[in-house]
Design goal:
The complex is a heterodimer of chains A (113) and B (109). Chain A has no helices and 11 strands. Chain A is mostly beta strands and 113 residues long. In chain A, the strands form 2 sheets. In chain A, strands 2, 4, 5, 6, 9, 10 and 11 form a 7-stranded mixed beta sheet that branches. In chain A, strands 1-3-8-7 form a 4-stranded antiparallel beta sheet, with no helix packed on it. Chain A is globular. Classes of the chains: A mainly beta (113), B mainly beta (109).
């Protein structure tokens, strides 16, 4: 019973490089989310998905793309990394987008130099 | 603009003290307010509040919501060093959560 799994856990990128963060959940949740967490700013929503094949922009979507080709996976892509994207990224999933709280992954610490 | 404001930003207490953390919010289409504890990694769920005046309690932690005044408090009694963490408040509106910046609590032995 893994819950929400994020890979990788740590990554260092050079400015301009690209990468993909993977989020996988085994709870058959419909909703999935990507957040970034920066000191003093809480968690901010980047993109989210309300079901397989759907994506939507959150609060801070610029510089990121996402895909949800399979219900269990939600990918976050950085096409051309910038130092401003240095952050801790959290994925979360939710059964039905209603009242219940999220299940979070353990996070990915990304440093862009 | 939807926002969640937590106070204080940080505090340091001694073991055995009681602390009160505050969360005020302004959102449209409020559904629920949630509290999380974050210790270095992923936030872990503490409480979900949907109705005013009904206290949720779990051991030494308790929380209550005031939907008229748009705020919630999280109380921790008889604090222990293991309570040291960032406490996050989040408000659910629609199918999304908006988070506050968090309160950093440090409990000294």
């Amino acid at each position: 019973n893994a819950g929400v799994t994020q890979t990788p856990k740590f990554r260092v990128l050079k400015t301009g490089q690209s990468m993909t963060l993977l989020c996988a959940q085994d709870m058959n949740h419909e909703y999935m989310y990507w957040y970034r967490q920066d000191p003093g700013m809480g968690l901010r929503l980047i993109h989210y998905s309300v079901g397989e094949g759907t994506t939507a922009k959150g609060e801070v979507p610029d510089g990121y793309n996402v895909s949800r080709l399979k219900k269990q996976n939600f990918l976050l892509g950085l096409e051309s990394a910038a130092p401003s994207q240095t952050s801790v990224y959290f994925c979360a999933s939710d059964p039905d987008g209603l009242y219940y709280g999220y299940t979070f992954g353990s996070g990915t610490r990304l440093t862009v130099v | 603009e939807d926002k969640v404001v937590q106070s204080p930003l940080s505090l340091v207490v001694h073991e055995g003290d009681t602390v009160t953390l505050n969360c005020s919010y302004e959102v449209t289409n409020f559904r629920s307010l949630l509290w999380y504890k974050q210790e270095k990694k992923a936030p872990t769920f503490l409480f979900m509040l949907t109705s005013s005046g009904i206290e949720k309690k779990s051991g030494r932690l308790s929380s209550i919501l005031d939907k008229k005044e748009l705020f919630s408090i999280l109380n921790i009694t008889a604090t222990q060093t293991g309570d040291s963490a960032v406490y996050l408040c989040a408000v659910r509106y629609g199918n999304k959560l908006v988070f506050g910046a968090g309160t950093i609590l440090r409990v000294k032995s």
